Amino acid sequence: MTDATDQNSRAAASASTAKQVPMVLAEMVSKSFGSNEVLKSISLEVKRGEVMCLVGPSGSGKSTFLRCINHLEVVSAGRLSVDGDLVGYREANGKLYELAPREAARQRRDIGMVFQRFNLFPHMTALANIMEAPQRVKGLPKAQVEKSARELLARVGLADRADYYPAHLSGGQQQRVAIARALAMEPKLMLFDEPTSALDPELVGEVLDVMQGLAASGMTMIVVTHEMGFAREVADSLVFMDAGVVVESGHPDAVLSNPQHGRTQAFLSKVL
Amino acid sequence: MSSTKPNRPAAPQALPEPARAAAIKAIRLRHPGRMVFATLLVLLFVVFILDAAARPAFDWPSVGKYVFDQRISMAAFVTLQLTVYSMVIAIVLGVILAVMRLSPNPVVKSLAWFYLWVFRGTPVYVQLVFWGLISIIYQDISVGIPFTEPWLVFETDAVLSTFALAVIGLALNEAAYLAEIVRAGLLSVDKGQDEAATALGMSWAQTMRRIIIPQAMRVVIPPTGNEVISMLKTTSLVTAVPFSFDLFTRSRDISAETFNVIPMLVVASIWYLFFTSILMVGQYFLEKRFARGVGDRRPDRKADGLTGAATGTVTGLIPTIGGGQATVVLPVPPAAPEAADDPTSPEGGVR
């Protein structure tokens, strides 16, 4: 895959210029919905090219944290930055200024997101789904966008499904199109929110294969998942969350084989 | 559906072919009640027609004479114009109002709410009378900055004909109703769509225009078709303006001369029915257009005889008119260069 080597070298090049700046840096991030505190002082760091898996029971705040990273949710306290830029705010003279919608949209362009329920645009074909954002948001010429969209479809193994509407694709195929759609914006960070949870067991593998290929190409990824096999095989780090708190984190092998905290042990004994 | 990923082992083994039982041949369940009822209805209808044909009050020769009378056909055309103009304005305004009501901007939101409160809260007949009196309330229309010398001054009577006032009156009232229909449609679109578009970096306006509104259309079109048909008939109220060249007012005027009311009512009804029938056909095609991706046939399955889009809610009569035609699906092999022109090429004929 020439694509992969290309991306590797790009990742390496940018890493050398900004070695210190992590891709995602959360410092004591909290998030409340009314009186319900969903995230409690989360601090973590995702390096360039790193694949981090977030695991934990439902309601533990994994998805909310993911959504905070691309500003679909607004953080209540703490600092959250992507590639050195504060998410949702501009800092000047020690004060925070809320970003205008246009600026927030610009930040999101560089962050790809894949949803549990795919969220493909049902009134567009697979190809049109992928072409939409590069064409409308980046204003790239149609011919160029279509060429790269077809390449992306081929990359996720769906070259022959370009003209299918989402309703005529299986769940696994839809999710692969959704990944291609996010990649079309050439993001520097990919967020996956339980990408295989809505799939039949038989279809999970094809999506994980695509994600594994993506990880191998050097993409920085944060993956909320219940697929412990994937976490062990692909992730560089694993974070276990419960009730809005990071309970335990470290190398997946270490956390999965030898969990330190009682809560982690209890959770893993049920899912492994 | 099997995975198409190349590095995945393809299933080389054919699945075992099970033995099959013979297809079921059962005696169809009879519905004698339906037949009896249908026969009864047909008989009643025939009796009604024969009776109506013989009744002098209907004065069929007059109906035949006036149905293609030039005054009537001109009036029918005017009614159609009133409907089309006011509906086009109302739809544009209704979409704007609906989007305004869902806007994150509280000023814009309240403005839309106020509009709805006024125009939905008063009868259309009263509004039409008001529009008719506008030249008495506001003799001049001035363009300029308030409390300074105006740049342009128009005499209201001179710039706004009664036809224009009728269109304005009908359109502004209808917009309030359409706004609610469109809003319901916008709310029916899954929240994930908005999130997906936002996550891709699309702006609120882009998300609305490209993602939300096209999907809302599917929900919005059936009730809007209803509103168009309703509007066609509401045009008969423009006499309140007073505008007197529409179908109903015209036929009333003629019957006032001939003292023969009933045949003119029949004539007007025939024209109204004719137009509403045409509108129903149009609605059917619009619904198909916006059902893309919902009930369509897959690009690789075009040979089955059934109609693809099953979402039409119009009468059983209509689908037979366009049934085979609108869903013609041209299979486009992904490698074919002409597929590059239009991402929606499987439906190329419709777009």
UniProtKB/TrEMBL annotation, chain B:
Is the Transmembrane helix keyword given for this protein?
yes
Topology class, membrane: Multi-pass membrane protein
Mark the transmembrane ranges: 35-54, 74-100, 112-138, 158-179, 261-286
Q: Which family does it belong to?
A: Belongs to the binding-protein-dependent transport system permease family.
Per UniProt, the keywords (alphabetical) are: Amino-acid transport, Cell membrane, Membrane, Transmembrane, Transmembrane helix, Transport
Q: Which PROSITE patterns does this chain map to?
A: ABC_TM1
Q: Name one GO cellular component term.
A: ATP-binding cassette (ABC) transporter complex
* Domain of life of the source: Bacteria
Its main localization is membrane
Q: Where in this chain does the record put each ABC transmembrane type-1 domain? A: 76-283
* This protein's name: Amino acid ABC transporter permease
Does this UniProt record's set of keywords contain Hydrolase? no
Organism name? Cryobacterium frigoriphilum
**Record localization:** Cell membrane
The region called Disordered is annotated at 332-351
Traced from the root, the source organism's taxonomic lineage reads: Bacteria, Bacillati, Actinomycetota, Actinomycetes, Micrococcales
GO terms for biological process?
amino acid transport
InterPro entries per the UniProt record, alphabetical: AA_ABC_transptr_permease_3TM, ArtM/GltK/GlnP/TcyL/YhdX-like, MetI-like, MetI-like_sf
Biased composition, class Low complexity, residue ranges: 342-351
Extract the GO molecular function terms from the UniProt entry.
Answer: transmembrane transporter activity
